[in-house]
Structure prediction request, 304 residues.
Amino acid sequence: MAAREQLKHAPCPVARALDAVGDAWSLLIVRDAYDGKRRFGEFLDSLGIARNILSGRLRKLVEAGILEEAAASDGSAYGEYRLTRKGMDLFPVVVGLRQWGEKHLYGRQERHSLLIDEASGKPIPRMRPAAADGRPLTPANTRVRKLPDGRA
Amino acid sequence: MAAREQLKHAPCPVARALDAVGDAWSLLIVRDAYDGKRRFGEFLDSLGIARNILSGRLRKLVEAGILEEAAASDGSAYGEYRLTRKGMDLFPVVVGLRQWGEKHLYGRQERHSLLIDEASGKPIPRMRPAAADGRPLTPANTRVRKLPDGRA
Prediction:
């Protein structure tokens, strides 16, 4: 079995998640869906990728149960792609990517978009893994408990 | 400019982050580094990918400032790859992928590894974006404030 194919069956949830969404375009489509985009043409305009690549990624996201196809809400002939619960649950991943990008990938003079909490009108706080009592969790104070057969 | 190349310069931090780490192997190398792996051979054994692919991904991660090369801690001739602060800061992304995978990608009978809080010995709580006052944040109660020129 090729290494890439093994990810789909891995006992490590990080590996399985990356098998499903471990490419840039898939997560950018999910990002655009959070931003309210629904139509093929909207994703096409936003991403600037070739139609056949977008078609393939949308089909893969539908097969993975992250998006679902639905009749257009305005009754037009073109269908829409809507996020499922599974797709909505990727929000922490997209927020994590955003916040890491904000911190590490912009020069001092460079500006970037902001994710705003609508209730406060302010950028959302940094999201961090935390214990039940609020202690910050890091690679240093966590460990992976592997399956008994030693697989990751 | 090709669509993929534009991600590197995007005003959206999600896009820039995915330009840097938007492939499965790069984030699995980072996962393995959190798990204490440092040597080329350790990553090779863990991932089961071809040496040239691993070499390329490690070089890209070093160029991106996510890993740094260092002399081996045991004085041997083989160098090590260590996480930088920028690499450590990807932890929320990896935790987010893990928790989404745990929730959505395993059948009832299937077991997976667990990320344990060493202090409590228990799996770490679900990480969620939250407002300063603790309200859960979702795509429905947040919005992206784009740059004035309308770019995402």
Notes: Chain A touches chain B through 82 residues (CB under 8 Å).
